Amino acid sequence: MIKIAPSILAADVLNLERDARRMMDAGADWLHVDVMDAHFVHNLAYSPEVVRRLKQIATVPLDVHLMMDQPGRYLDAFLDAGADVLTIHTEIGGDISAMLDRIRRRGAKAGLALKPGTGISAALPFMDQADLILTMTVEPGFGGQKLNETVLDKIADLRNRGYEGEIEADGGIKETNLSRLIEKGLSVAVMGTALYRAEEPGEMIGRLHQMG
Predict the structure, then answer these.
(1) Other CB atoms closer than 10 Å to residue 95's CB: what's the count?
(2) pTM as predicted
């Protein structure tokens, strides 16, 4: 069954606990936390402290996506705060293999993210170390963008290459386009605006779960 991971980037920043609980009560499988350093992407959000506070109320895994140019400096801070899944980008400098290994040795799932313009060749050397590969379906940094459908083939290519871990997509995912992603091999869907603006998010998540 497809996992649904509401992104708190779409939540009301003054009511993060309320909105996080609303998504968990609605049947969310994970909570997705975007972390941005204003260097790797042109936006700034959330600190280890936000993850730590979310962990105190979380009844589902916290899926933390580090959109940072030097994530190695902060891996332990986010793992200490309670990240259950911790994702870094292929486009950064540094020893990606060592960082993925470090995350796994701390007991979390290690994720590797690809921007829309980055081919899967960047992830292939690390497929045995990555528990999750995140295919960005919009340019990272801001919510509310339209899904880039050229990324669909990346998901299929990863499955065709034998990748059996979680494949996650983030950006512009809606009830009307999720089935196409699932058909390609998607297993985790990050959703923001579509879920938080839904009048009955529980009913929507129920329908999404039935898609695959």
Answers:
(1) 10
(2) 0.96
